[in-house]
Amino acid sequence: MKTALTPRETLAPGIAKVLKRLHYPLEVMLLCVRWYVAYSLSLRNLEEMLAERDIGVDHSTVHSWVIKLLPLFEKTFRKHKRPVGKSWRVDETYIKVKGSWKYLYRAVDKAGNTIDFLFRAKRDKAAARRFFEKAINQNGSPETVTIDRSGSNLAALNAINAERETPIKVRQIKYLNNIVEQDHRAIKRRIRPMLGFKDFNCARVILSGIELMHMIRKGQMKCLGKTAPSAAEQFYSLAM
C-alpha cells in the first residue's frame, strides 16, 4: 500500500500536530482520506477494504481522520491554487443534512475551473452575499457574474456593487450557467453513497474535501516541473 510519501518528520507543522494524536501509519490515514473524497465509497466500504489488507480500522476512525485532516489540506491547497478567470458562473445545489435540504453555493469560470464554494444552511440574500464575498476575497474580483433567475443572488450582487467603484457586470442568462450545473454532478455523484449527512459541520468539511479533489483532477494545483504529478501525488503533497 504505497502512497509515495516522505517520512513523518517532513510533514507540515499543522499536519504533524494533528497526527501526533492519531495512532495509525501515516500512509494508511492519508490513503483512506483521499479514497473517501475521490471515489464513490462509504466509510464502511473503506473499513472492509482495509480489513482485506489485514488492517483493522473502524469506519468511525476513518471518519475522524477525514474531519481532522481535510481542513488542513484545503488551507494548504489555497496557497497553490492556479488563478481563475474573470467571467464567473454561479449556482447553488441542494445537499441533504439530517433529512433537510441545505445549500452548496458554487462558482466556476467559463473554462470550467472551480472558483469557490460555500455550504450554507439557508438560501437567501445573506448566504449569497457571504459566498460572493468569500469568493472575491480568495480569488479577486470578477468582471462578469452569470446567475440564473435567483432573486437572492441578484440582491446580494446588487448590494456588493453598491459599495464598489467599479461594479461587477451581472447577467441572468440560464443557458450560460449550464457549465456550473454540469459541474455539480461530479460533487453529487460522490456524495450519493453517503445517503445524506447527519451533521452540518461534518458535511461542510467533507464537501470541502470533495471539492478539493475535484479541483486537483481539473489541474488547478500549481506544480513544479514540466510534467504534473498524478492527482494522488498532488493530494499527498498537501501534507508535506
TrEMBL record:
MF term (GO), any: DNA binding
Organism: Paraburkholderia madseniana
A biological process term (GO) from this entry: DNA recombination
Name of the protein in question: IS6 family transposase
Domain of life assignment: Bacteria
Keyword DNA-binding in annotation: yes
Domain Integrase catalytic: 79-237
Key word Nucleotide-binding present: no
Protein role: Involved in the transposition of the insertion sequence.
Keywords (A to Z) from UniProt: DNA recombination, DNA-binding, Transposition
A Pfam family recorded for this sequence: DDE_Tnp_IS240
